[in-house]
Known about the structure:
Helix content is about 25%, strand content about 45%. The chain is an alpha+beta fold.
Amino acid sequence: GSRGWGEIMLQILKRRECGLGWATDVLLPRCLRAEELRQLALAHQGGYRQFGNLVWIDVPGGRITASLVACRLTMRLGSAAAEEAFRESLIQVLSGSG
């Protein structure tokens, strides 16, 4: 489904990964910049790693993977509350108020 905050719309896709549980793909209205992903990592006590255009944010409850060139990210957080908190931060960053 889609969830929005003001003008920001996120499309959320849940999928089962073989042997790994659930992954949540978030389709973004625009690509995130490295500094925005670093900001999200800090806000969620996460470690930030980048290799080329790929970014990994390791947080206490799991991992977020993102790309600097694809307008999407994937959450593997294992908790609906953690996913909701990350989505709220994501919307703030995308709207420029993060």
